[in-house]
Amino acid sequence: MEQTNESNEFQTPIVHKELETNSTTPPFSMANVLHQPHAFNYTSQFAILLGLTGIGFLVGGIVGIVYFVLATGSSYLHIQTAILDVRNANAIKIFQLISTCFAFFLPAVLYAIITQNQRPFKKLGFGKMPTITQIGIVSIMAVVGLFLSGSLAEINRLIPIPTTWQQSFKAMENAYNKQVMVIANIRNFTDYLTSLCVIAIAPAIFEEVLFRGALQQLLGNWLKNNHLAILITGLLFSAIHFSYYGFLPRFALGIILGYVFYFSKNIWLSILLHFINNGIAVSQLYWLTLHNKLSLQSMEDNFPYWYGLPSAAILFVLFKQLKQTNSNQLIPAN
User: Fold this and answer.
1) What is the pLDDT of residue 20?
2) Quick one: pLDDT at residue 333?
3) What's the sign of the alpha-carbon dihedral 191, 192, 193, 197?
4) One-letter-per-residue 3-state SS of the chain
5) Domain extents in the chain
6) Can you give the pLDDT at residue 19?
7) What pLDDT score was predicted for residue 45?
């Protein structure tokens, strides 16, 4: 809970000199600091999380690039070309794993340790394991959410924008899809399992820990409005993927993930839904590769826009069921 009486709590008492000499206060050390209760206000917590995330992006990028250059023998000057070479697919997967771990997972864990040294993983939502009922509800949500995302992708495409913007966004989207096609060079079942770990499981864990476990809870307690916190977190979650044509679908996914965590108070369920969403995409790429149908056009997953209404209605019912499985209360931020 945020400290509101700092002036009283941290005021140095006036004592006699002889009492000061008998003080049992331990000497200053980093170990003592890490074992003292923290009194960071929400502004400080946000600054810590933001700073750690920025450092994580920088360090993760550097470490990932160094690994990629050493693993492939590529030149630093030709990395943009090398990451599109299918022969470097495994190195690209490891590069992505390293960079996302540093950018998302480690900052969130360090933030939890700094702001609450006791049971930091519980602070991030790693409580008891979900029930079978919750797992079933969230699994159905993940499938229904694909139809909602597909309809929003079509709406996203239909939004009128200047021609120059459209060409630029389309070029960025094609470049991203080309890299995905390289990463998804799934030649056998072993490659499929590896891709599931790198493209589906790892991002689900890393991103959920940062966005839902750390940021959403912090904003919810800071703004005293959990729905606004979910909205802001969903916007940032979508924006961080740098995809115009995927903005609305990822925003919707972020909202769904946010409410799953809000109603369940369990980060494992958000991770599960995120994993299923990614896993279906990886499985689709595997099937297309096996049948020699993988192309930029085949990777488009738009659905008719009217699919959104029934999908949203089904999700509303599922959220009511999920809400009944747990109390409607966020995990405290402090």
Assistant:
1) 44
2) 41
3) positive
4) CCCCCHHHHCCCCCCCHHHHHCCCCCCCCHHHHHCCCCCCCHHHHHHHHHHHHHHHHHHHHHHHHHHHHHHHCCCHHHHHHHCCCHHHHHHHHHHHHHHHHHHHHHHHHHHHHHHCCCCHHHHCCCCCCCCHHHHHHHHHHHHHHHHHHHHHHHHHHHCCCCHHHHHHHHHHHHHHHHHHHHHCCCCCHHHHHHHHHHHHHHHHHHHHHHHHHHHHHHHHHHHCCHHHHHHHHHHHHHHCCCCCCCHHHHHHHHHHHHHHHHHHCCHHHHHHHHHHHHHHHHHHHHHHHHCCCCCCCCCCCCCCHHHHHHHHHHHHHHHHHHHHCCCCCCCCCC
5) 6-324
6) 40
7) 95
Question: Contact, 94 vs 71, CB < 8 A?
Answer: yes
Name residues of the chain where pLDDT drops below 50.
1-25, 28-37, 328-334
Report the distance separating Cα 313 and Cα 319, nearest Å: 10
HEC readout, 210-262: HHHHHHHHHHHHHHCCHHHHHHHHHHHHHHCCCCCCCHHHHHHHHHHHHHHHH
pTM of the model: 0.83
Q: Which amino acid is at 327?
A: S
Residue 201 is predicted with a pLDDT of 95
Q: How confident is the model at residue 256, as a pLDDT?
A: 97
